């Protein structure tokens, strides 16, 4: 199963920006789409954005559309997400994974994003 290493999280004030990275440690050629998810404290994983490895197809839910931008580096097998205009509601541990999720997804350690004043 593919393993992922997420990085780039941190603590920012409302309105701030962060750029997350996700390295896929194993081949993902069987997975056409990748995605970012997040897990707020005490809640389930939420879908945040997805993209194909070519990088020309993306989708965002309304909660992040216009603020977050997902991108991919197919050669390096690295996924990115530029997050702007962050709000406290964006506070969560952020993960990447294949999309759609397998029936029993394996999660990396994630990267913590905290937005507070």
Describe the structure.
- This protein has strands at 4-7, 10-12, 18-24, 33-39, 46-52, 58-59, 68-73, 78-83, 92-99, 111-115.
- The mean pLDDT is 92.
- Strands 2-10-9-4-5-6 form a six-stranded mixed sheet, with no helix packed on it. Strands 1-3-8-7 form a four-stranded antiparallel sheet, with no helix packed on it.
- A hairpin with a 5-residue loop joins β5 (46-52) and β6 (58-59).
- It is mainly beta.
- 0% of the residues lie in helices and 47% in strands.
- Gross morphology: globular
Structural class: mainly beta
The count of strands amounts to 10
Please report which band the strand proportion falls in: under 5%, 5-15%, 15-25%, 25-35%, 35-45% or over 45%. over 45%
CA(first)-CA(last) distance: 39 Å
List the total number of helices: 0
Alpha-carbon Rg, integer: 13 Å
Helix and strand run? EEEEEEEEEE
Q: Whole-number average pLDDT?
A: 92
Q: What is the spatial order of strands in the main beta sheet?
A: 2-10-9-4-5-6
Oligomer: single chain
Residue ranges: pLDDT <50 for 5 or more in a row?
none
Biggest beta sheet attributes: 6 strands, mixed
Helix content: under 10%
Summarize the structure.
The chain is mainly beta. The chain has strands spanning 4-7, 10-12, 18-24, 33-39, 46-52, 58-59, 68-73, 78-83, 92-99, 111-115.
